[in-house]
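Comment thread on ticket #2218

A.B. wrote:
> Attaching the input chain for the structure job we discussed in standup.
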Amino acid sequence: MGRKEISCIVAGLALASMLMALSDAGLEAGTLGAQSATLVHRRPSDVINEVGGVRFAPNGTLYFCDVGNTVINRVFRLAGSAEEVVYTRPKPTIHDIAFSPNGTLYFVDSTNKVYKLVGSAEAVAYESQTWGILALGFHPNGTMYYSTCEVPGLVYRASAPDAVVCSRPGFLGHIDFGPEGSLYFTDGPVVVPSNFFRVLGAKESLVYTAEKEAVRGMCMAPNGTLYYSAFVSGAGCIYSVPIAEIDHAVLLGLLPLILGGFASRVDRGSIA
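C.D. wrote:
> Ran it. Output below, let me know if you need it in another format.
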């Protein structure tokens, strides 16, 4: 073995040791807090029509619900810059929406029930043993998950009985899964600044901070881009942030761990 190969191995081990030390100190690779968000859609200025949950249908169309109206809630889809009403609920309140892999639209209203849209009517799709369901998400394998208005913040797998798959000390807001199955979530509804995290093994990795917006919903696009809704300057807005860049940074940070023989410490895809 030549000096060049030995130098590469030593450098790799040194980098692995450094990254492990940073990880043990609670610092995560891949933070993109300074990345600018791009405005995707801005609603007409109307306080009762804030944007709530946002989600992509399997065909790539972006949907959202409006919140803040105590009488009626609606679900829209974006057709270019135009909003098309998909469902009008004659009672409050739709906090979040999600699509199953087969394209069925689901939503939650802070009770213990999950609803789905069947034709032009809603039906109870799931009833949990918890209360105050705030957000909903589907793993790529089709399994349903939800978060609640609790402290500590909890994410449950909808099963019999419901199973806690993620817990954090403070509030936990909206949730979704990346195309590879990683769990993403916000640190609570309507807080400023709002932080977005990715669950990697048993750790939270900060992936983005919305410093000025009160975030009301979030989702992951099929290409790994983060979309979120916020209330800004008297209007509901939807933004996008290229979180896919963070995933590459996280993987790059994990490579030295593998070279150093620490691959067994990384539990990828543990939520399924």
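A.B. wrote:
> Thanks. Noting for the ticket: Residues 140 and 190 are 27 Å apart (CA to CA).
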